[in-house]
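Sequence in, structure out. Go.
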Amino acid sequence: MLATRSVGHYCQLCRGTWGLDVIKEANTRLADLFGLTGWSKGELARMVNRQAAAMGHPQLSTDTSRVRRWIETGETPRDPVPKVLAALFTERLGRVVTIEDLGFDRHRRTGKKQAVESLPWPPERTAEVLTEFTGMDLMLNRRGLVGAGAALAAGSALSSAMYEWLHTDPALSADAPVVDDPLHSAQATTAGYDRYEAAPVGSEEIEALERSVEVFRAWDASRGGGLQRKAVVGQLNEVGGMLSYRHPAHLQRRLWGVAANLACLAGWMSHDVGLEPTAQKYFVIAAHAAREGGDRPRAGEAMSRAARQMVHLGRPDDALDLMKLAQSGSGEQALPRTRAMLQTIEAWALASKGRGQAMRRTLGQAEDLFVSDKDDVPPPCWMQNFDEADLHGMQALAFRTLAEHDPSAALPAQHHAQQALELRCAGHERSRIFDYISMASACFIADDPEQADRYARLALLSIGQTSSHRTWDRLREMYRLTGRYAEFQSIQDLRDEIRTVLPKKSGPKSGTASV
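Output:
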């Protein structure tokens, strides 16, 4: 079970005689991560010196006593040491570790919000954070590995940290100061942009980037997030470099839109393959990028993805906190279909808590919003996959989830799953697998093992063709329901097949059975 760690308020910063920022308390983030590495302080000092020299800073000299001060007194080292440390910890722990994760906040802000992943960061930091995080992610070059110290921030902590920021108008690129030579600016140096590849772009290049997002999105819907995740992260990293330039306002907004779409897709793909803390960070980056481009509904949808992640991980209260933020942050610009999609996610979270009346009311609102959308305004590209099939699919999932608390919900779950299956078009194989599993699970709960066996086998026929860990998680939930019918030979055979198909887990997710 992933856990969250409470981080106390940072005390007032002061300027030291050596030009260092001194925090008069231990850096608990750095201490926790340092403890996971197994290094000694002397080893870390030597590695910092070697890594810095490899990065073009041979004059850097760090010793054991300085490492001790970073950890025990909260001393913040000068650049480029934080970036060097982030690279070392990322490689050692097998997951992305940013400068902020190490407890080094370059903007030295104080207060409660800093305790949650230094959120929200100032507008001028978005491209920097985007490029740094994707660069670290790519550096790992191995899929599915999450360090033992990875943790998800609670939904309530995320929403409270971002609430005021999301409800203010963004400082759009057109209003930002012009950078004459971004390749040699302090921001570019700090963010680690590639000095040879970053360049301004025109409308044709942005159109190509927008088309690439559609290709990646279609692949994800069909085959899952595993095979193309690194490609999406790499494309996002390139866009971060482009955003280090100040383009004309209309182009800059479109670039921010591409960044938001890629970041959200990178987050969804990361969630799909079980990289949960990484996914959460991408969702936050997506919300920031969308707000930089002035697209409040896109920012709200990004936060709704984080809410869906929370429900999947068995944390519906956190999901409801995030949905409040997503719905209020989307503003009046959100189309009825977008608001309907948000309502279905809230309904799923309510179903997880067994709140059937509230869930039904929320789904009713979603249906009303969906049918009220007259399609007179083209939906944004990121909403084109939410069609009638998806509406029924989410309703099936909500009723199937509620059926764990109220078995009478199994019948409407079957109805909506059947509707979703009839409406699913080609290219949405992963969603079809979810529909099969929802139907099979609802049939088991409704005491219809024969029908359940049929749909479970349809799911098994295609589940191996995707790289989605989420489908495996849902299959594990269905496997738990087969236990009461294990005396039936056909169900016993099904259980054997499921155990053969599913990969082994090191530990079960809350609410699921380990197979």
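Check: The chain has three domains: 13-103, 112-334, 385-515. The radius of gyration is 24 Å.
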